[in-house]
Design goal:
Helix 6 packs across helix 8. By secondary structure, the protein is α/β, with parallel strands linked by helices. This is Class I SAM-dependent methyltransferase.
Length: 242
């Protein structure tokens, strides 16, 4: 039986034919019941890894959506927490989720990750989960530069990166097909809906972070499983402001 809490196929199609911002406004009430929400296992593994690297005071969840990443910040930060997103609908859901949260609640900010409305050096920690497919490769240097600006000296930019599927596997062809369909959609319809799964390879992300002024390290999240060759299925990328 279909789950009434999950978006229907027509609702997903309507989202995909909208702009990114409008699409997420439409999807927001049901977003947490889709597979697009970052799994709790990834959030918990990230929090455990960051606890060994702190302490952190103030933290930002970049492209926070409905606020799943705030769970991580509340686990590892002793000061203020904030979530930044450009979708009013997603922020509305986030505010509702944390309306009765004990203690000092998160500060929700509507804005563009490429031009975050914060003073330089505001945060010790910036995290992000599942949002980077919405940025084109040419936008990475600007995004990383802006993140570096809002971090304090020695601050950390952290986000999980899953190992890419091996060529020839079902997952590989699924992601390749999705990206191809999205490119066709954006070639024939405006406004574009930017969402690609294969545009953030580790080597290029590492290079752009170094050029933006970060020192980069990888922390394996072994509890999320390993591939046949023994390598972790997911790593936490840790970029430290130099």
């Amino acid at each position: 039986m279909s789950d009434p809490l999950r978006p229907t196929l027509p609702e997903l199609a309507r989202q995909a034919l909208s702009s990114v911002q409008r699409g997420y406004d439409l999807l927001a009430p049901k977003f947490d019941h889709t597979r697009y929400r970052t799994p709790d296992s990834v959030l918990d593994a990230t929090a455990r890894a960051l606890k060994t690297l702190g302490p952190f005071t103030d933290g930002l969840d970049l492209c926070c959506g409905t606020g799943a990443g705030i769970h991580v910040l509340r686990e590892v930060c002793s000061g203020r927490t904030a979530g930044l997103d450009f979708s009013t609908g997603m922020l509305t859901e986030a505010r509702y989720r944390y309306a009765t949260a004990p203690g000092f609640g998160p500060h929700w900010v509507r804005g563009d990750a490429l031009a975050p409305p914060f003073r330089p050096g505001t945060f010790d920690l910036v995290v992000s989960f599942g949002a980077f497919g919405h940025f084109l490769p040419a936008e990475r240097p600007r995004l990383f530069t802006r993140v570096r600006e809002v971090l304090r000296e020695g601050g950390t930019f952290a986000f999980p990166m899953a190992a890419p599927p091996r060529p020839g596997t079902a997952a590989y062809w699924t992601l390749l097909g999705f990206d191809a369909a999205m490119r066709v959609r954006n070639a024939v319809r405006r406004p574009p809906f930017v969402m690609y799964y294969r545009t953030w390879p580790l080597a290029e992300v590492h290079r752009d972070l170094i050029e933006a002024g970060f020192a980069v390290a990888l922390h394996p999240l072994g509890e999320l499983g390993r591939r046949e060759d023994g390598s972790p299925r997911c790593r936490l990328l840790l970029a430290t402001k130099r």
